[in-house]
Amino acid sequence: MKVDVLVIGGSAAGIVGALTAKSNYPEKTVLLVRKEEKTLVPCGIPYIFGELGGSDKNIIPDAGLQNGGVDLKIAEVIEINKNEKKCKLSTEESIEYEKLIIATGSIPSVPKWLKGANLENVFTIPKDKVYLDEMLTKIESLQNIVVIGAGFIGVEISDELKKAGKNVTVIEKQRDILSLAFDEDVSKRAQSLLESRGVVVKTGCGIKEVLGDRKAEAILLENGETVKADAVILSIGYQPNTILAKNSGIKINERGFIVVDEYMRTDDTDIFAIGDCAEKRDFFTRKLSSIMLASTATSEARVAGMNLYILSAVKTFGGTIAIFSTAFGGTGFAAAGLTECMAKKEGYSIITGSFEGVDKHPGTLKNTHKQFVKLVVAKESGVILGGEVVGGESSGELINIIGLAIQNKMTIGSILTAQIGTHPLLTSAPTNYPLIKAAQAISQKIRESLFRN
User: Fold this and answer.
1) Residue 409's CATH number
2) DSSP secondary structure letter of residue 259
3) Which residue in 93, 113, 127, 70 sits closest to 1, CA to CA?
C-alpha cells in the first residue's frame, strides 16, 4: 500500500494534522493510522468520572476525517523504515509514504521508585477508552479515593469524583494546587474553592508508598502520615510516547521528545512530529519545555500540515505560550504565558496589574460572576508577558485573547486602545472591563515610576 501522507496517531494532533494536510494539498492522499477503535476527547476525560457518566459521551466522531477526505485505518505502526520510507503495521501490512507525521502522544508517568504502584486499584489516566471504562467500573463500588497530583487533570478528576459522591483526598507535593500554572494569589483561590466543595487537599508533601497486600488500602506520605484509600489515582504527569521514533533512529532530545524545527520537521525532513511527542520550546526563553496541551498540539499540527511540501516563512511554530484553563464549581481559572513568579525567575524586569470586576453588566443580572484579571508585562517595553483570569465561563475565551496578545507581542498601550464589543449578558461593562482596567493599573504604575525617577 502506498500513500502520499501518512499520519501515525489519532488524537487531537493527528486529526488536525491529517485534515490540514488534505486541505492544503487536496491532490495528495492522506491516511491516518491509529490503534484505538475510538478516540477520546483528551480534555474531556476527567468528566467521564462525573458529569458525563461514562466515556461513550466523550468520543471524537470519525465523520470529520471522512468528510475531510482523510482515510482511516485501525492498526498499530510497529516500525518506521526511514531509508525505504515505509511503515510496518501490527497486521503485517506495510505502507509506503512520501511524507510522514508522527503524532503518538504521551503516556502517564509512574515513578519507578513508587512502591505499591502495581497494586490493584492503583490507576493512571491514559487516553485509552478500554482502560478508563474498566477503571470507572471498579471505582463505582469504591468510596475513598486518593488522587496524587493537583495539576489540571488531578483537580478536575477530584472534583468530578466528589460530585459523584466519593470521599476524595488530593495530594500535591508543591505548596499549592495548580502552582505550575498560576501565581499564589490565583492558586490559593482555586484551592479554597476546591476545599469548599468537599475535597480534602493536602499540599507541601509527596507520596512515599502505596500500602496494601493485593489491593490499595492506604498511602504513606513523606511526612509519615497515612491516608485511607480504596483506590489511588496517579496524576503526576505524562511522558512523550516516542519509543517508535527512537527505535526508528529519529533524533530524541534529553527530555525524551522528538527533536523538531519550527516547521515541525524531524532530522529527516520528510518526517514531521507534532503534539505531546514533539519537542517544545518556551515562547519567550526558547528553553526546552515539557508543556503538553491539546491546544498546543493542534497549533503544531496546522503548522506541519501546511508545510509538508512547500515551506512558508510565516507559517511556523514560534514556541509554546502555554495557555491553560479549567473550571469547577462554576468558576473558571485560566492562564497564559509567564506568571509573575516565572518571569522573575527568568530575570525579567516586570510590572503587574490586576482588577476584579464582574462578567456582566449591570452586576445585578442573573448568573453574574466576579471576574479577576492579572497581567504581567515587561517593564522597559510594556510588552505583555502573561496573564491570569478567574471568573465565570467566559474565562476560557478571555485568556485566549490574552494569549493572542502575547503571541503578537502586544503592549499595554495596545490593550488600552483596544476596541471591544460588549453586551450586558455576555461581557463586562465597557466602562469597567477588567482586562483594560488591569492594563490601566500597570500604566499607572509606569507613570508613577517615571515621576519618581
Assistant:
1) 3.30.390.30
2) P
3) 93
E strand map for 136-230: 144-148, 167-172, 200-203, 207-211, 218-221, 226-228
Its pTM stands at: 0.94
The confidence score (pLDDT) of residue 274 equals 98
How does strand 218-221 pair with strand 226-228? antiparallel
* pLDDT class of 453 with cuts at 50, 70, 90: low
What cell numbers appear for 166 in the block?
A: 466519593
Q: Taking residues 233-244, what's their average pLDDT?
A: 97
Give the span between the Cα atoms of 336 and 247, in whole angstroms. Answer: 35
Q: Over 80: is that where the pLDDT of 451 sits?
A: no
Report how many domains make up the chain. Answer: 3
Q: Which of 219, 236, 253 is the last residue of a domain?
A: 236
Please give the average per-residue pLDDT across 74-84, as a whole number. Answer: 97
At 243, give phi and psi (nearest 5°).
Answer: -60, -45
CA of residue 387 relative to chain centroid, distance: 16
Domain boundary among 176, 209, 236: 236
C-alpha cell recorded at residue 133: 471504562
* 3-class secondary structure, 173: coil
